[in-house]
Structures are given as structure tokens and as C-alpha cells.
């Protein structure tokens, strides 16, 4: 059997063509979409998803690209903000989405290697300037890359002001449904209706968690060593074993809580001895929590995220069991997974407008920290655009500076309970995680390429 040897210095991508795709039935006149309070908490970070497909049996690359363009032009009728522009309001300095059908950008590229030689573990050498093209003039852009074996990768990059993972997942599923000539399963809600109460009121603890900031402060975070972009595979057996260890005395912990406990205990072995404490954070989706289940915001296109955080001493985390750490994670997440928290957060932002807001943890204020994002409902295997299901679907990042370690978990395309985990780590944490067998560096063999 051929041995996997990822090609680093030999990996090149040639850009062949760019196209601007517009909705075929646009709005009758441009509209301005003001961002909601929770949109202002997004940080304007680019959000990228990477999907890999084996060589299609019945389609060539040119026909695939044309099919993607045609179905994109159709789905943009429904998701028209994604074909707009994001500009700064001169009076408030806040971003606005101008729904003017300027279009989405599609880039076509050719790689000089087969798909099974792509380095899927070290994303630092695969993404920026190769598999991901970012033009700041387009809030949504796609790159379709063909490999010498006929395999294909597709990257989708969104401006975070357009929405969060739930919104982008709805969009991608709808696009794939259009591509397969199916009716779309989601009628998107673009109203950005998350309004503050009158008068706004909030718990004072939010002042310790969030802070007003500028886009310049976000872009120019102080340099640090959180630079390692990695992709891992975790098999179902490992996940289930962690959940068993974390669930004691009749208290069952979720897989994410158990996973977080393991990562947090590993993290304390990798931080500088000068730090007495460290933090863990969890992104929490407010859909289904705001205004009750009858108004679950399930089709809401925008940002509905908050951040739960917990802090502990390094000594304590080293000494206590994984179940105790999982309990800490559970308690922290529970404080945020309710309507009262999200209504308070919306009001807190209202009291600090105009401008952008962000978690102090994400800005790197307050010591070593790692944030976990669960994408368990994000589409992976079902993202078929008419040329087959993907073998990999994952979040990835082109962010050059980030103030916190980050992990994004989602179901693997296998559908067997295994996970794909995309991470941005400092070198010592990457080494600590890889010293065990749970975090397996992603490879072509794990994807059966």
C-alpha cells in the first residue's frame, strides 16, 4: 500500500478563473439590513468551511463548476444578504448589510497534487492563499479546487456579520437542495429581530465577560503563540469512553462536556508556570432558548451566540477527576443556556452601542484560555451538490491573530459517531494532545482516500 507523504513545499495551486454570481431574481430595489445586537458580538471574523469530494463518476470539473454557479444564483434569491455588501455606517461606525445583489465570488483553481497528498493535519500549509481565497469586497466567497486525481475541494468563506454556524448550515443545505432540484427545507428569516427591552437591563456580571471594542482592536490583537492550525480525527470509542469517565453518581454528562473536561485537564500541562489560573469557554446558540420553543428562531439567519466561561486554578484542575471538571463545564454552560441570559446580553449590548463587542476571553484578556464550539448539527455527509457526498466537512480558519485557543467539533462524514476537530492551538498544547491516542492527526487514510 502506498505510504502517505503529504507534500508541503511541493503543494501549489493555480488560480484559473473568477466569477461573480448574482441572484437571478433579486429584490426590486436595494435594502439596508441593520445588524442586530448579537451580530455586533460576532467580531467580523471570516468563517470558512472546507469540504472534500472524491472524483465524481459522471461529471467533469467544468460541468460541476457551472452547476454550482447556476444553483448558487438560484439560492441567492432566498438568501439575498449573502450577495450584498457590508459597509460601515458613517454615523454609528457599525456595519450594515447593503442588499444590492453585488454578488458572491467563485474562484476556480487547480492543485498540482492528488487529493490523498493534501496535508489535512497541518492546515497552516494548506489554507491561506491556496485553498481559501479571501477578497474583502465579498462577504461570501467560494473556491472550487480540482486535484490531479480528479478529486475536488470546496471552501465556503462567510463574513461573520452575515450569521453564525446555524445560519450558514441552513444556507449550505438549502443550496445543496437546489442543486439536487429539491424544494428548500428552510424559508430563511432575515429580519434580524432580536431587539432590546425597554428599558434595557442586565446582570452586572456581563461587564466582567464582555467588552466594547473596535475592528482595529480585533484585527490587531497582541501577538501570541496561538498559531498552530490543526485537524484531528477522534473515533467514537474514545468519545464514549470520555463520556463514561465524566458521568458518575447517576449524573450523565454530554459528550461535549466530557470532551471539554479531557481537553481542559490536558491544557493545564501545557501553559506557562507563571499562570495560576486558566479558562475554558463554550459557544452557545440561543435558538430555542429566546422566546420559548414556539418561537425557536430555527430559520433565523444572523448571529444568536453567546459565550459561557469557567475559570479554575491550575493546581485544582491537575488534582480533581475528569468527572469533577465535566461538572464545572456543565455548570458554566447551564448559566448561559436560558432565555434570561440572552435577553440580558442583548440589553447589555444595547447599553454599549454604537460599536462592536466581544468576549474579553476571545480578545486574549485574562490569561490562557480555550474556547470549544460544537457543530454537531452542522451538515457534513448530506452536503451533496449533485456530484456525491463529501468525505470530509470541517470548519477551518484563516485568522492570523486570535486571543484564545479554539476547537470546533463536528460529526465526521463516516456517520459512525466519530468526530472531526479543527483547532487553533499553541505548540505546547498541540504536543500534549497528540501525546495521547485520542487526538489522531487527520490523514488521507482516515478518510479512506
UniProtKB/TrEMBL annotation:
<dbReference type="InterPro" id="IPR050317">
    <property type="entry name" value="Plant_Fungal_Acyltransferase"/>
</dbReference>
<dbReference type="Pfam" id="PF02458">
    <property type="entry name" value="Transferase"/>
</dbReference>
<keyword id="KW-0808">Transferase</keyword>
<dbReference type="GO" id="GO:0016747">
    <property type="term" value="F:acyltransferase activity, transferring groups other than amino-acyl groups"/>
</dbReference>
<protein>
    <submittedName>
        <fullName>Transferase domain-containing protein</fullName>
    </submittedName>
</protein>
<comment type="similarity">
    <text>Belongs to the plant acyltransferase family.</text>
</comment>
<dbReference type="InterPro" id="IPR023213">
    <property type="entry name" value="CAT-like_dom_sf"/>
</dbReference>
